[in-house]
Write a structure and sequence with these properties.
The chain contains one helix and six strands; from the N terminus they run βββββαβ. With 76 residues, it is mainly β. The strands form two sheets. Strands 3-1-2-6 form a four-stranded antiparallel β-sheet. Helices cover 11% and strands 38% of the residues. Strand 1 and strand 2 form a beta hairpin. The longest helix is centred in the last third of the chain and has 8 residues.
Length: 76
């Protein structure tokens, strides 16, 4: 699958990340003016469960239920 990745600053130099399927808009409930594009059309294995570089876990479940996947800040 191909994903577009966005990021936004949180605190102490930490970023949260948002992954959406390539070309799809950020869903309404996640729209935030401070999301910055980080990677476009990033190729990700269809079987990938996580994106460790972006601290995103449960990738297929999040995209399947919400249309996007987001960083879990509790583990950062």
């Amino acid at each position: 699958m191909r994903l577009d990745i966005y990021r936004r600053p949180e605190h102490d130099g930490i970023f949260s990340y948002l992954a959406v399927p390539e070309g799809k808009p950020i869903p309404q409930e996640a729209i935030n003016t401070d999301w910055e594009p980080t990677a476009r059309a990033m190729e990700v294995d269809d079987d990938a469960e996580e994106l460790p570089d972006f601290h995103i876990e449960h990738l297929p479940e999040q995209i399947g239920s919400k249309g996007y996947a987001i960083t879990g800040l509790k583990d950062m």
